[in-house]
Write a structure and sequence with these properties.
single chain, mainly alpha, DNA polymerase, domain 1, hpI Integrase, Chain A, 10 strands
Length: about 375
């Protein structure tokens, strides 16, 4: 219920008590204005819209601080989102009121991101896990998608608040740049053999086993570094991909995700892994650094991988080429894409389809058609006067 009264100042004030128990007021010199407002508030409350009229005055930056504290995401995801927020979102949106952001402004921001030049970005791009140095001309489509996702998550959470802070998400279903599939690079078997020999010669047989497991089975670098002996079925030649080593420490893949999987291991690689655990606890890390601690992706790349690449004289790719090589070899050998997806733990089949063109029968029908038409063309061209 609402009530209207005249204040000592001569103005009129309407008060409405919402379903949340809080009082909401509006003051105006005209009684008709506050009466209309009160009727509108009562109608909204009756329809279930219990939004505090002042909630939309919350600043985006303040809401982000609350959301970040309560989101409960994994540390690696939180670090990625924080970097995206500080770099791309905060400079634009932190001072805006939540209710003032419309889809038009959000779409305009996307256009700005597409034209943004990064003066200099040293180190690692957290959105793509690629080492980048020097001048980067434009933001990638992946980075723009990730930044928009951060903002969309903020507004989705604000809509779910009781009472809701905003009633709509202006960052939902924006027109975003297409993410073009990247070309797939991989090592040829001769290159891999040269690289294995160089790794063993420079760093030891244990690191060769590390590379073989990545190149044949396609484990991610963090999965290799996080592999424990008790996850290996030594009798059946399989291992469970459960743990992953991150820069924030060891964590487990969610059981609901494809990354949590059981995969086969070649016999020679399994034997090499067993030798590494000789004299150590069987439930410890299979691969360790020289001090017995966890393998760091950066130390492996800089102290083992790239020196071996140079010594082997093969094309210079980062360590993630091992995973691409595993998938490429299997597809070229006729292994169905769904089996490759299961082995590598791709969440989306679209990721696995990047290797479809490598299948031995990928263009068989096209080649057969050319062969059929080629025979007809030769017969037709035998009597032709064209030269």
């Amino acid at each position: 219920m609402s009530y209207i009264r005249r204040l000592p100042s001569g103005k009129w004030q309407a008060t409405v008590r919402g379903p949340d128990g809080r009082k909401h007021t509006k003051t105006d010199p005209l009684k008709s204005v506050v009466r209309t407002w009160a009727a509108g508030q009562e109608s909204k409350f009756a329809q279930g819209d219990v939004r505090d009229p002042r909630a939309g005055d919350v600043r985006v930056g303040d809401w982000h601080a609350r959301y970040a504290r309560a989101s409960g995401v994994e540390a690696i995801t939180a670090a990625k989102n924080r970097s995206l927020w500080v770099t791309h979102c905060e400079p634009k949106w932190a001072g805006w009121r939540m209710s003032s952001v419309t889809r038009m402004e959000a779409q305009g921001w996307v256009a700005e991101l597409r034209e943004t030049r990064l003066a200099r970005w040293r180190g690692r791009d957290v959105t793509t896990s690629e080492s980048v140095t020097g001048d980067v001309p434009f933001l990638s489509a992946e980075t723009i998608h990730a930044a928009v996702h951060v903002m969309s998550s903020l507004f989705r959470a604000a809509m779910k608040e009781h009472p809701p802070v905003v009633l709509a998400n202006p960052f939902a279903e924006l027109d975003l740049p297409a993410i073009e599939p990247r070309p797939v690079d991989f090592y040829e078997p001769a290159e891999a053999a040269a690289l294995y020999d160089a790794i063993e010669r420079l760093a030891g047989p244990g690191w060769r086993t590390f590379a073989e497991l990545g190149m044949d089975v396609g484990l991610r670098l963090g999965e290799l570094a996080g592999l424990h002996g008790h996850r290996v079925d030594w009798l059946r030649g399989r291992l469970a991909v459960v743990d992953v080593m991150t820069r924030q420490g060891l964590r487990q893949h969610p059981k609901s995700k494809r990354s949590h999987r059981v995969v086969p291991v070649p016999a020679a690689t399994l034997e090499g892994m067993s030798r590494l655990l000789a004299g150590r606890e069987r439930d410890g890390l299979v691969f360790t650094d020289s001090a017995g601690g966890p393998v760091s992706d950066r130390n492996f790349a800089n102290r083992v991988w790239f020196p071996a690449v140079a010594a082997a004289g093969v094309r210079r790719f980062p360590p993630r080429i091992m995973r691409h090589t595993a998938a490429s070899w299997l597809v070229q050998d006729g292994v169905p894409l769904y089996d490759v997806q299961a082995l590598l733990g791709h969440e989306s089949f679209a990721t696995t389809q990047r290797y479809a063109h490598l299948a031995p029968d990928a263009h068989s029908r096209v080649l057969e058609s050319w062969a059929r038409r080629g025979g007809a063309s030769v017969a037709h061209g035998a009597g032709s006067d064209l030269r």
